[in-house]
Specification:
This protein is an alpha+beta fold. The chain has one domain. It is 45% helix and 17% strand. Strands 2-1-3 form a 3-stranded antiparallel beta sheet.
């Protein structure tokens, strides 16, 4: 496995999420390790949002915030389930060391593959 590059999570022929990292092995673990927190496992957090219907991000304290959602047993269960689901997904990657090329390739791949869990909106 190359050290840095762009990666793809898929289930069969359904491509779900593209990311980039300067340590692909470590980043994979942070997405799906059972002990990974909501701040480390961003893709799992998105899957849990989708599963529980809390699709809109909120940056205000309360149930819509990341911390607020993690206090809800239903959401915690969905988050744990999402990390297990990611562990079963296909994980593909391509080496790319240049940061700018990583960013461009991540965006290109997410658009070309229509990955539903990539979001490049600003906050």
């Amino acid at each position: 496995m190359p050290l840095s590059g762009v990666y793809l999570f898929s289930e069969g022929t359904t491509h779900l999420y593209v990311g980039r990292s300067n340590n692909l092995r470590s980043r994979h673990g942070r997405h799906c390790r059972p002990g990974a927190t909501h701040r480390q496992a961003a893709f799992a957090f998105q899957l849990a949002r989708h599963q529980t219907g809390f699709k809109e991000a909120s940056y205000k304290p309360g149930s819509g915030s990341r911390a607020g959602l993690m206090e809800m047993p239903e959401f915690q269960e969905a988050f744990v389930s999402a990390k297990a689901r990611i562990r079963r997904m296909d994980y593909r990657y391509v080496a790319e060391h240049d940061q700018t090329c990583q960013a461009l390739l991540e965006i290109y791949c997410s658009v070309a593959l229509a990955t539903p869990f990539n979001d490049f909106g600003t906050h």
